[in-house]
Structures
1.
Amino acid sequence: EVHLLESGGGLAHPGGSLGLSCGASGFSFSDDAMTWVRQAPGEGLEWVSTINHNGKITFYADSVKGRFTISRDNSKNTVYLQMYSLRAEDTALYYCARQGSSGMDWGQGTLVTVSS
Amino acid sequence: DIVMTQSPDSLAVSLGGRATINCKSSQSVLYSSNNKNYLVWYQHKPGQPPKKLISWASIRESWVPDRFSGSGSGTDFTLTISSLQPEDVAVYYCQQYYTTPWTFGQGTKVDIK
């Protein structure tokens, strides 16, 4: 069974930075792409970023391009999302997901709040 | 970007009644080389992460009761709950994974009338 556990959420000031981690188990981590998706309060789901299985190819939503960096460490079964230049509109519940060939399996999420 | 549009935004159905959710993509998500639609449905309950319900537009996950069905191809898709149960109250999202950026519909909230 796929198990994903996010950590690192919390309060950040506008313009600040925050780093999220997601530990994975229950599947062959190094074989799968990984994705971050967020949900702002009262809003729907927004794809944020995806990294391929070996970390060499990354994709970003326009809303975070140049500010967020996704990476992974296959030796630690962990994917990361480093967030810089945070804005109020980045406030959301951030989900880590295993990007399978037929959709995503999701973690529980970690809350990021950007406020002064 | 492929825009995913769901309708309705919300609906309330009697217990045992039929719920139908539509999802329309701004361009086809049917990959011609394998004849597969890169369209997934998720069920999202409050306080829980979304769960994959149906993949490839019509293939139920193993945990999903057969009252749930997905249909459609190309740009028009439908999620049907044939006999609504209390545990089906949730927000349902369609998502395309044909091309990045992966995009979601805005969600459809399903309640009991």
Note: Chain B touches chain A at residues 40, 42, 44, 48-52, 55-56, 59, 93, 95, 97, 100-107 (CB under 8 Å).
2.
Amino acid sequence: DGGITQSPKYLFRKEGQNVTLSCEQNLNHDAMYWYRQDPGQGLRLIYYSQIVNDFQKGDIAEGYSVSREKKESFPLTVTSAQKNPTAFYLCASSVRTGAGELFFGEGSRLTVL
Amino acid sequence: RKEVEQDPGPFNVPEGATVAFNCTYSNSASQSFFWYRQDCRKEPKLLMSVYSSGNEDGRFTAQLNRASQYISLLIRDSKLSDSATYLCVVNDGGSYIPTFGRGTSLIVHP
């Protein structure tokens, strides 16, 4: 079955700790994205990658970092510099940027205590 | 970044009703448009793409008005299972990066 796998599904961390969220896809998609969703809000773009070894900042990149060393993997690190990290994080992919449907993982719910 | 605006609702309708949502976008160069459905605490899933000539999928009809820069979603004969948040998505005409609206909440009651 092709799809996107995010892990962990739920994560609790203390303030000041860095956290890395995993995102793996086996759809052979070039483009991958990280979005953040807060309660009652839409999805806001953190980072995106159009191709391996390349990534671009989205609207709210401060306090986050990513890497794209392999086509199938796009991990997101939430650093201690992120002032309000508690949120629902969604990873998505598409054949390429602008190419129609986004496929989402099930999301990672991060709570910082 | 260019804006995508939706009425957050909630729209509270009885089963069998017809309900319509609008979504406005500010970037006139936007190229492609979509409606996604998101259930509570789940990931969004594609409901339908929106084509220039309008398109229909069963009880769902999507329309695009480029002159006024809005898209719409019409749901006929609402079912309880249609209760969800409906997200409007616009691909920016320059970068082709998807931009999401805040979503419109629909509650269908018996």
Note: Residues 11 and 110 of chain A are 5 Å apart (CA to CA).
